[in-house]
Amino acid sequence: MLNRSAAFVGVFILVLAAAVVGCGGQKAPAEAAIASAETAFAAVQAEAVKYLPDQAMGVADAIAGAKAALGKGDYQAALTAAQALPGKISELSTAMAAKKTELTATWTSLSESMPKVVEVIQSRIGILSKSKALPAGLDAAKFDQAKSGLASLTSAWTEATTAFGAGNLTEAVAKAGSAKSLAVKVMNLLNMQVPAALQ
Questions:
Q1: Where are the chain's structural domains?
Q2: What's the whole-number mean pLDDT along residues 108-119?
Q3: pTM score, two decimals?
């Protein structure tokens, strides 16, 4: 009976030892996979945060999760999480490139049209300001709104170009969008035809 018990204990120790060795054997691959993911993410993180902050945060959280599992000694979970990271980082890089292309195209279009629109509005308001009477459909109140709108429009467009010059494409496009909306509002107040580029 004692021999059987000893044999059972011996088998249990061997199984436990194998499990410990197995877990330990996953530590190095998990560490290497996490380190590789951190390096890959670091290469795109700065731009990713600018263009796709939520998706970038998701990758950062995934890396943090893998490191947390590693810290707890759950090497299998850490390795599994780390093995999913390259795909997440690749998806982020692809989406970021597409977003940057989209924003660049939007900015290019607005940067070509908005200066001309601002100039046309300024010219129209300048002419009306010198006129003895306002045209039909435009009273003094609307004209004052248009002049105020032009000031806001000019300010918004200046902020947009400043943001672009600083390399903040996302902010530049957002502010340019505000300027575009203001331009449409002012042109409608002045009964001007809104160009296709602003529609």
A1: 2-97, 100-198
A2: 94
A3: 0.76
